[in-house]
């Protein structure tokens, strides 16, 4: 089954070191949550893993089934099975959602193994139904004029169709009302499998009532400073982060 091992990952933005040595091991079937105050580097971790050009990796490795994804280009990472649902998905004018999805699926499947149009449409419409999305969204330009909740559902639709090995969800809960949160979480839970690991980044414990993590990690100042089970998320929700700082002697 899938194995993803991040070892000593360091990354900088505009010359400033943000990630100061991240170690994390995710196995297929596991859901890991990363929580932490704003500005501690959670989104930077997601972006560095996906190869966003603004984030310079200055050390460490991230082995997906033995291959260092940090050595790969952005497209290669997606092909290898990395998927990121973003906090702020971008809008792309001139590309319809369905065209975007089909080319992403075909890139993931590889040359000579492209999905037929009929099969693609059937799959897409099936998943859209599960996510309670109107199928007209297939023909709209990617994310253009989508509400916050629609964008997030669309990210989950992409995930469902791409069948990735490692899924990173960056604050997928932000801006979602309870109904949308339930639908999005059901979509994620339906994708749980021995071949897939999840990294769920969230500022609030609420999401973790819907997507139940096996492990919870606290990130502060570019490091994972504490790891535990779901009870850790509950304590953070009740008591905030100060006790972690005190315990570790972190001054900010
Ligand atoms: P989090 O997701 O935990 O709230 P981020 O990873 O977004 O934190 O940010 C961590 C730090 O890196 C912050 O100080 C932020 O200002 C800085 N940073 C992140 N992305 C950029 C960027 N594209 N340009 C400049 N600074 C950035
Ligand atoms: Mg933030
Ligand atoms: Mg963030």
UniProtKB/TrEMBL annotation:
GO MF terms, alphabetically ordered: ATP binding; ATP hydrolysis activity
Organism superkingdom: Bacteria
Pfam family, one: ABC_tran
Entry keywords, A to Z: ATP-binding, Nucleotide-binding
Disulfide bond found in the keyword field: no
Signal peptide extent: none
Residue ranges occupied by any ABC transporter domain in the UniProt entry: 4-246
SMART domains reported in the protein's UniProt record: AAA (SM00382)
PROSITE patterns: ABC_TRANSPORTER_1, ABC_TRANSPORTER_2
Record flagged with keyword ATP-binding: yes
Protein family (similarity comment): Belongs to the ABC transporter superfamily. Ycf16 family.
NCBIfam families, sorted: sufC
Protein name (record): FeS assembly ATPase SufC
UniProt organism field: Paenibacillus curdlanolyticus YK9
Organism classification: Bacteria, Bacillati, Bacillota, Bacilli, Bacillales
């Amino acid at each position: 089954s899938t194995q993803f091992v991040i070892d000593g990952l360091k990354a900088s933005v505009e010359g400033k070191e943000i990630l100061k040595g991240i170690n994390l091991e995710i196995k297929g079937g596991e859901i890991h949550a990363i929580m932490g105050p704003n500005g501690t580097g959670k989104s930077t971790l997601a972006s560095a893993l996906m190869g966003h050009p603004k984030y310079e990796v200055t050390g460490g490795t991230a082995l997906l089934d033995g291959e260092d994804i940090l050595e790969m280009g952005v497209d290669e990472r997606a092909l290898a099975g990395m998927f990121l649902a973003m906090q702020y998905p971008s809008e792309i004018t001139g590309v319809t959602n369905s065209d975007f999805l089909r080319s992403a699926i075909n890139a993931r499947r590889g040359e000579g193994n492209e999905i037929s149009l009929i099969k693609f449409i059937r799959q897409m419409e099936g998943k859209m139904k599960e996510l309670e999305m109107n199928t007209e969204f297939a023909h709209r330009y990617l994310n253009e004029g989508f509400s916050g909740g629609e964008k997030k559902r669309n990210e989950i639709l992409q995930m469902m169709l791409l069948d990735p090995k490692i899924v990173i969800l960056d604050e997928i809960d932000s801006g979602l009302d309870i109904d949308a949160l339930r639908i999005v979480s059901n979509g994620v839970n339906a994708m749980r499998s021995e071949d897939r690991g999840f990294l769920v980044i969230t500022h609030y414990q609420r999401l973790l009532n819907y997507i139940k993590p096996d492990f919870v990690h606290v990130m502060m100042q570019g490091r994972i400073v504490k790891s535990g089970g779901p009870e850790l998320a509950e304590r953070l929700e009740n008591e905030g982060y100060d006790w972690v700082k005190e315990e570790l002697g972190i001054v900010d």
